Amino acid sequence: MAPKLWLYDTTLRDGTQREGISLSVEDKIRIAQLLDDMGIHYIEGGWPGSNPKDAEFFRRAADMSWRTAKIAAFGSTRNAKNRCEDDPNILALDAARTPVITLVGKSSVLHVEQVLETTRAENIRMIQDSVAYFVARNREVIYDAEHFFDGYLLDAEYTLATIVAAATAGASTVVLCDTNGGALPDAVTAAVRHVTAVLAAAQLQPVIGIHTHNDGALAVANAMSALTAGARHVQGTINGIGERCGNMDLIPLIANMQLKLGYDCLPEYQLKRLSELSHAVANFVNLNPDHHAPYVGRSAFAHKGGIHAQAVAKFADSYQHIDPELVGNEMRIVVSELSGRNNVRMRAEALGLDIAGSERAILQRIKDLEQQGWQFEAAEGSFEMLIRRAMPDYQSPFELLDFTVIVNAVAEGSMISKAMVKLAVGGQEFHTAAEGDGPVNALDRAIRKALLPIYPQLAGITLVDYKVRIVDEHLGTAARPRVLIESAQGDQRWSTVGCSENILEASWYALWDALELPLARYAEKVL
Ligand SMILES: [Zn+2]
User: Fold this and answer.
1) b or e along 144-171 (b: 16 or more beta carbons within 10 Å of the residue's beta carbon)?
2) I want to staple 248 with a disulfide (CB 3.0 to 4.6 A). Which of 176, 236, 396, 404 is the partner?
């Protein structure tokens, strides 16, 4: 039987410690629902004693029903000067009404004596009292041993005594935390074995857990070392978001443990939703999905070189470590000047377009444009439009006749951008004008103003990212900006590109493809 692992997500607490991330209560509830839906076993919602937002989250969570997950509230052991009964932090934890309480305590003598400024014995009592307080109130208690690995190096005996104290008081799980993120895999293995032996000698059988950070780029490796040494509970965040260099990333951890080592983490059908989960959480925390993220990134199974692409066409596994569908990802053939006709045909086939006869012309067009600084690798939307426009019966849904953009600096720090466009749709001309936050935004608004009454399906499309690169690959000419636009509608995303010596023209090309692509696909469905 494959050993069962308990997955504990702390995206909503440790994850939000990442610089620049702030989640509303609504966001936190929605993320928690996603995690519950995925089959994650524990969801740490926050620290109710630390801020009113977290307290509000727990108020709402207590009245909701959860399918698979247990909600956990996080907080520290009682203050050295307080009894549990009148410790404000303990009371706030109690008030969160969660089935699980995760108590963080000091396990390193350095922190006990120099940060907490209390005695070793008092710290042990604080752990025992706090754990016992919640066990007596029928809560499942998870004990997080802060700075476990650093403490273990300084004074292993004391650090182990804190773990034994928590387990004796009734903690169901004792979690060894690499709070500073500097541990190494072999040391983690050795420590987990030692903890297991010490607990067994004391006739205690809590689940052993692991909580790691990525400061040495080893968070996943360290967690895996702990799990293969016998730990059964693992804490991390989705996409590894967290303070400094991040927390342990649950996504590759789950994939590695389940697909490579056969542990039981999630049902198979849920595993197929890992990519979706990763992208959805990235959206909620307002970060662009990392295209190169292992397992779930857009490029994780992308093949660019002509030989690789040819090989995977013959035998899919020849250049990939797993079948991408197992984690809900897909193999992609990347189009670039490096690639041959084969790639172009395969990409077109994947889009359901038959380009027999025009392959050579399309490839030539790609080569010419790439020579001028365009790049289609990261712009599949523009590649698709290039193919569609090469089809003999293609009809453009609209045509831009001309546009004017004015940027007016009215006062220091205050600029107004206005755009005027002239468009033709089916022989009829439309003139519109709009203001925007910048020239590209004004242009986008003016074009949509003209198109929306005719194509209401454009309403849900948003531009989610706009990037400019200076292309210096072809020397001797002026630097050319290359603009990449990423658009979204529902959970669909597409990237488009434009390149020109004029940044507005480059932006226009990218914008044009961004708006025409959904119309072209829509027209195809209708016909
Ligand atoms: Zn942490």
Assistant:
1) bbbbbbbbbeebeebbbbbbbbbbbbbb
2) 236
204's tokens: 């205690």
pTM above 0.85, yes or no: no
Q: Is the four-CA dihedral 225, 200, 42, 285 of positive or negative sign?
A: negative
14 CA to middle of ligand 1, Å? 6
Helix/strand/coil for 361 = helix
Total Cβ atoms within 10 A of residue 358? 16
The Cα-based distances of 116 to 122, 182, 282, 333 in angstroms read 11, 22, 36, 56
Q: Exposure string (b/e) for 377-413, b if CB count within 10 Å is 16 or more?
A: bbbbbbbbbbbbebeeeeeebbebeebebeeeeeeee
For residue 333, what are the β-bridge partners?
A: 303
**Nearest residue to 61 via CA among 92, 36, 88:** 36
Q: How far is the CA of 236 from the centre of ligand 1 (A)?
A: 8
Q: What is the 3-state secondary structure (H, E, C) of 23-80?
A: CCHHHHHHHHHHHHHHCCCEEEEECCCCCHHHHHHHHHHHCCCCCCCEEEEEEECCCC
Q: Concatenated DSSP letters for 81-143?
A: TS-GGG-HHHHHHHHT--SEEEEEEE-SHHIIIIIS---HHHHHHHHHHHHHHHHHTT-EEEE
Distance CA 334, CA 314 (A): 16
State the pLDDT at residue 340.
63
CA–centroid distance, 13 to ligand 1, in Å, is 9
Give the whole-angstrom CA distance, residue 270 versus residue 140. Answer: 26
Find the 217 Cα to ligand 1 centroid distance in Å. 15
Cα–Cα distance measured from residue 458 to residue 516, given in angstroms and rounded to the nearest whole number: 9
State how far the Cα of 433 lies from the Cα of 47, in Å rounded to an integer.
50
Q: Is the per-residue pLDDT at 303 higher than 90?
A: no
Residues 314-324, mean pLDDT to the nearest whole number = 83
Q: What is the pLDDT of residues 356-370, one digit of tens each?
A: 878 888 888 888 888
491 by DSSP, 3-state: which? coil
What's the 450 CA to ligand 1 centre distance in angstroms? 51
- Average pLDDT score over the chain: 91
**Alpha-carbon span 207 to 185, nearest angstrom:** 20
The whole-number average pLDDT for the span 337-341 is 58
Residue type, 379: A
- How many degrees, rounded to 5, is the angle at CA 141 between CA 19 and CA 193? 85
In this prediction, residue 472 carries a pLDDT of 65
| 212 CA → ligand 1 middle, Å | 7
Dist. CA 348 → ligand 1 center (Å): 46
CA of 159 to the centre of ligand 1 (A): 18
Q: How far apart are CA 407 and CA 415, in angstroms?
A: 7
